[in-house]
Design a protein that fits this description.
alpha/beta; Rossmann fold; 8 strands
């Protein structure tokens, strides 16, 4: 007989990591410091809403772009907390784009997926190779972008618009969130959660997926990342990695380090 999983304990990351508030405050400080020294940052609009913008950190006017989609369980934070995570790739001459989006409960998770598709289409106008990364909810959205049928949305777009997704501590099956406190802003039922879960979409036909998770995260996060890798491995190249000693909030830190394995992997994906 299998043990009953405490889904609230597994998915409530701020409760699980007592120092999470201090870590998030540190993100904001580091992000502000990077914005003050980085050259050439600009804002790209992808729609008319106040949050429909992309912070763009160009390392050069050609070559690949790595997109980083922020987390916050689709209901918190914005791009301004994550500017410093462009440092690692910028140092290798790779441009980084960090979009914001509207938050639940003002919009639905499905609406956010649509917004990230709009942001991606706007970046496609730069005619550059795109790798989409993301953390937590952003990892979910990165997988959604890889699994999107771009030609069906716009016949002018290439089907391989996204050449790779790099999901850090992502969620790919949202059904376990339904009975938790996290769902108070998402308003998902089982059917709605399944509809916005890329695990149940047709697998991508091109590109690759890296699913990376903190080694100190709960079993559910490890299961989620391994599950999407297993589900898509027959269709595209996939890779699972657990980062030793990392929790949900520290798993993203290597993006700021030019010599980290995470940055070097993203560099490789962007320049394949």
């Amino acid at each position: 007989m299998s043990a009953v999983i405490d889904l609230e304990a597994e998915y409530n990351n701020r409760a699980k990591v007592p120092e999470s508030a201090a870590l998030i405050a540190g993100w904001a400080q580091d992000a502000k410091a990077y914005r003050e020294i980085v050259q050439g940052k600009r804002v790209i609009r992808y729609d008319e809403g106040a949050r429909h913008s992309i912070d763009y950190f160009p390392a050069r006017d050609e070559g690949p772009i790595v997109v980083f989609i922020h987390g916050g369980y689709w209901q918190a934070l914005d791009s301004s907390f994550f500017s410093h995570l462009a440092r690692g790739l910028n140092s290798h001459g790779i441009s980084v784009a960090v979009p914001s989006y509207d938050l639940c409960p003002n919009v639905s998770v499905g609406d956010i997926i649509v917004q990230m598709r709009a942001a991606t289409r706007e970046l496609a106008k730069l005619d550059r190779r795109l790798v989409v990364s993301g953390h937590s909810a952003g990892g979910h959205l990165a997988a959604c972008m890889l699994a999107t049928d771009w030609r069906a949305l716009d016949p002018a777009l290439p089907q391989d618009l996204i050449v790779g997704a790099y999901a850090i501590s992502g969620l790919f099956d949202l059904r376990p969130l339904v009975p938790t406190s996290i769902n108070s802003a998402l308003h998902l039922d089982d059917a709605g959660a399944r509809e916005v879960s890329p695990l149940f979409w047709p697998a991508p036909s091109c590109g690759s997926l890296d699913a990376v998770v903190g080694g100190d995260e709960g079993g559910e996060y490890l299961r989620q990342s391994q599950g999407i890798v297993d589900a898509w491995s027959a269709h595209i190249p996939t890779r699972f990695e657990a980062l030793p000693g990392a929790n949900h909030f520290t798993a993203v830190a290597p993006l700021a380090d030019p010599q980290s394995a995470m940055v070097l992997r993203l560099k490789a994906l962007a320049t394949l």
